[in-house]
Amino acid sequence: MTARARLVFVFAIFVFAGLATAPAALAAPGDLLWTKTWNRTPASGIAGVKVAASGRGDIYVAATIDRGSGHWNDWLLVRYTKAGVRKWVRYYDGPAHGDDYLAAVAADRFGNVVLCGQAVSSAANGSDFTVVRFSRSGALQWAKRVNGSADSIDRANDVEVDGAGNAYVAGFWSTAANSSDWLTIKYSPAGKRLWRRTLDANAHLGDQAKALTRDAAGNVYVTGSATYSPATLTDLLVVRYSSGGHADWVKGDGVFGAWNDQGLAVAVNGALVAVAGITTAGSDQDALLSVFARSDGRLLASLGEGQGAPAGRLFAYSCVGIDTIGNIGVAGFAQYSVATGPAYYRAWYPVFTDPHSAYDDGSASSFDIANDLVMTPGGIYYVTGTVRNTGSKADVLTVAIGPGWLNRFTVPWDSAAGADDEGHALALSGGGLFVAGVSQDDLMLQKYVP
Fold first, then answer.
1. Which of 16, 67, 144, 434 is 20 to 30 A (C-alpha) from 49?
2. Contact between residue 301 and residue 271 where contact means Cβ atoms under 8 Å apart
3. pLDDT number for residue 391
């Protein structure tokens, strides 16, 4: 064989080997990598799914599960790896084995996980403000319950953890008939209460904290509703606590006067604090976005959707995020026609000015809703929720929008014809976008390319 022939032969072998081992096409944003479902035997109803990612790559999915007689509704917690391998399943059942409802979940950088909600400790106490912590191996480390003086409904609505593993929890406790106060507690990793703060507005009626978040300096921002008028009108309120529990400022919105306002979600980034919520009067319900200065709580803007719409329409912002330059993303639902139910809605406010917005109305013209939102520092925001199509079935809808309101992907997901699938919550971790919800009554976790 000549030298030239040997060169051609070797080249041909090299090309053939390269083709034989060529990698598959790279996954694109929005590609679904896998879906995992789980249920106990016998199958149980699952609702209110939440998801959190730990600093060690764990994906924790939590929900309320109906385990039937002897347990009734309990908390459910499942740990997955980023590859979708289920490691363990745990339950939390309050001491009285009554109806216990999960509200939120957070995981720390060590892989420990904290859950909060309400649990029944005795028939006489109603439900208690409840916080529990599990180790990465699934061991229950501690459970803390707080019972308000009215022995009625007490509930922890949201939880976050810091780099040291401390847990910050916000909700409410009942203090008298038809009266409740905000309750915010900081727990150490060992479950020791480091501080407790309450808020009782001057009408002494139904005050409830709904959500919290933290900034890089360790300050805690809590939002909800508080009643300051004897006419029982509620005001959207936000409180900033230092990491040591000092109330730096307490600010309300109050822009819409004789309307009831409440904050449902809160986000902080840079100089801004954004609160998403609703404002209602009679049969009208509008979406509300209030923007405050992080330093002193000054109200910078009060924006929303639905103001001026015909009576009887329903609008809500139930989740919110802020990027590093002050763009704000919100999501929830919007009803533009009385002939249809509310639509899955998202909007992007460039530095809280007039928004870009879009909505998806399922073919069933029923109740469609965006349930959760995650916004990256660089301005990409991800939304998941549920749209209902013909045959009364529900499908998951997950959307990603890039900076400048550029659509990154819009991905519907249907497990089977006629089946109900719902997207409830989102988490970003390790190059994956994780969507948690319910599929055909089973707990569901999906991984997408972000």
1. 144
2. no
3. 66
CA atoms of 120 and 396, how far apart (whole Å) = 32
Go through the domains of the chain in sequence order and give each one's CATH number. 31-448 (2.130.10.10)
The confidence score (pLDDT) of residue 450 equals: 96
Give the up-direction half-sphere exposure of residue 208: CA atoms within 13 A in the CB hemisphere: 18
Regions in the chain scoring below 70 on pLDDT: 1-26, 124, 177, 229-232, 254-258, 308, 352, 391-392
| Secondary structure of the chain as H, E, C letters | CCHHHHHHHHHHHHHHHHHHCCCCCCCCCCCEEEEEEECCCCCCCEEEEEEEECCCCCEEEEEEEECCCCCCEEEEEEEECCCCCEEEEEEECCCCCCCCEEEEEEECCCCCEEEEEEEEEECCCEEEEEEEEECCCCCEEEEEEECCCCCCECEEEEEEECCCCCEEEEEEEEEECCEEEEEEEEECCCCCEEEEEEECCCCCCECEEEEEEECCCCCEEEEEEEECCCCCCEEEEEEEECCCCCEEEEEECCCCCCCEEEEEEEEEECCEEEEEEEEEECCEEEEEEEEEECCCCCEEEEEEECCCCCCCCEEEEEEEEECCCCCEEEEEEECCCCCCCCEEEEEEEHHHCCCEEEEECCCCCCCCEEEEEEECCCCCEEEEEEEEEHHHEEEEEEEEEECCCEEEEEEEECCCCCCCEEEEEEEEECCEEEEEEEECCEEEEEEECC
Q: Return d(Cα 294, Cα 291) in angstroms, integer.
A: 9
| Interatomic CA distance for residues 309 and 334, integer angstroms | 11
